[in-house]
């Protein structure tokens, strides 16, 4: 889905156009998890399975979370205004923090139910094939959402595509560079697939043996996994609200772009701050000596335009000074040949 660049400041956008720019992964996850929550909730009531109840709570939490996150992704795509010149990228972090609260509450309820089942194990009342069918549906839907989120991560991180068994490891390696809503979908659906698998194991074991404690064990473990997701997502969005520096590879690419200009001799200083899924570049660049003010200003504008042509860079504030003959930028990967 095409996304407007934050530097495009213009007239107020319509609600419909903003919705089209919302995070697709979170919208799909919201619908899929709402269907699963209803199906698993009905199965839990009919069969009395605690593990199924835990899985239903997780799907319900996912559906509510993704609803919040989708709204946040829509609002974060609003263009910068005079009052908010840096745009609304951090709005998504606020909505993801709301999602963390929901996950934490659902995790508490799930763990509470799991402890109760460990203390007072209960036999399932039936519906073995209903449980199996719902949980297989769960694995199928959440697995498809997880694969979609993995592909979105590779797209947003600007890394080569991967397929097969390499897709998930590559996505996990680059998840930190994806947009906050995509990261949330990815983390939650990893737990959703694992939770559904644990619930499936619990249902089968209880049907074939007298080991009823596995129901409470699986329920508690699912709740603990939800706590892990809440902590991870909460941490990522907390630092996003504070303002975090760009990853090293992004800084290397930006510095290489600046140093690649024929009139640039060095970078005196540079700061790149990540806001939402976009980056703000602030750099002091040293130009070759002997330039007039007009020519130097044209070079500055040229560097800014080159940087902001990157769809991930929201804006670039470039200051220019004359080359002092010293090398200030230490993180060059290769020396640039000069004529």
Provide a quick synopsis of the model:
This protein has 339 residues and is an alpha+beta fold. The protein has ten helices and four strands.
Class from helix and strand fractions: alpha+beta
CATH fold-type name of the largest domain? Alpha-lytic protease prodomain-like
Strand content: 5-15%
| Distance from first to last alpha carbon | 43 Å
In the CATH scheme, the class of the largest domain would be Mainly Alpha
Question: What order do the strands of the largest sheet run in, or round the barrel if closed?
Answer: 1-2-3-4
The helix/strand series, from N terminus to C terminus, equals HHHHHHHHEHEEHE
Shape annotation: elongated
Major pleated sheet: 4 strands, mixed
* Unreliable sequence segments: 1-11, 331-339
Mean pLDDT rating: 81
User: Any guess at the CATH architecture of the largest domain?
Assistant: Up-down Bundle
**Helical amount:** 55-70%
Assigned CATH superfamily of the largest domain: Cation efflux protein transmembrane domain
- How many DSSP H or I helices? 10
Total domain units: 2
| Number of extended strands | 4
* Rounded Rg: 25 Å
